[in-house]
Amino acid sequence: MAKYTFIIISLIASSAATALPTDRDEPIEISANSAVINEKENLARYQGAVILTQGTFKLTGEKIDLTTNSKGEVKTFVAIGMPARFENLRSKTDEEPVSGLANRIDYSYAHDRVTLRGDAKVKIEGSEFAGPDVSYELTSGVVNAAGDSSKRVNMTMQPKKK
User: Fold this and answer.
1) CATH assignment, 3-148
2) 78 near 59, Cβ under 8 Å?
3) Are 76 and 109 spatial neighbours (Cβ–Cβ below 8 Å)?
4) What is the torsional sign of CA 113, 132, 30, 42?
5) Are residues 104 and 132 in contact, defined by beta-carbon separation less than 8 angstroms?
6) N or C: which end of the chain has fewer CB within 10 A?
């Protein structure tokens, strides 16, 4: 099956899209029904209506795994849900955050990339990108959506307000 990949760079925002730089300076807060922390494997697993926040970044799911490196620095968050959700403000002047949902959301802390898998949707200023797999770069605003002949990529783009 042929794959279709679309890259949309800053089509939605008139200014450069960037995650709030102060988010990384904020503590990570997690609320869940249960938690298992395995320091030997650098893994923490939270289950049951999990809510993870760091500044304006928010990730929710039925299960969230947090991995760290040997220094205890965050490497990834992986949220599983029906659906799992994320949202993040790109700038203090945004009227609404970028948001997304999917069956699985992987957040690479080093690359500031959110990858959504399984019935994925990302909404930016009223426009929506949907497909089997959609990734969103928090710092650059790049959206990459991939599909194939049986599950195509769809985009609904709202006109710019005058």
Assistant:
1) 2.60.450.10
2) no
3) yes
4) negative
5) no
6) C
CB 151 within 8 A of CB 5: no
Tokens in use for 11? 């089509």
- Predicted confidence (pLDDT) per residue in 51-108, tens digit: 999 988 999 999 999 999 988 889 999 999 999 999 998 776 677 889 999 999 999 9
Task: Match 């709030």 to its residue by tokens.
Answer: 20
Cα distance between residue 55 and residue 28, in whole Å:
8
Residues in the chain: 162
* CA–CA dist 85, 3 (Å, integer): 25
Alpha-carbon distance of 126 to 119, in angstroms, equals 18
Nearest to 127 by CA among 157, 101, 100, 154: 157
pTM of the model: 0.82
CA distance 37 to 142: 33
CA atoms within 13 A on the CB side of 70: 0
Identify the residue whose tokens are 């002047």.
Answer: 93
Residues 9-42 pLDDT 10s = 233 333 333 455 567 788 999 999 999 999 999 9
CA distance 123 to 105: 15
Instruction: Check residue 24 and report its DSSP letter.
Output: G
Domains of the chain, residue spans: 3-148
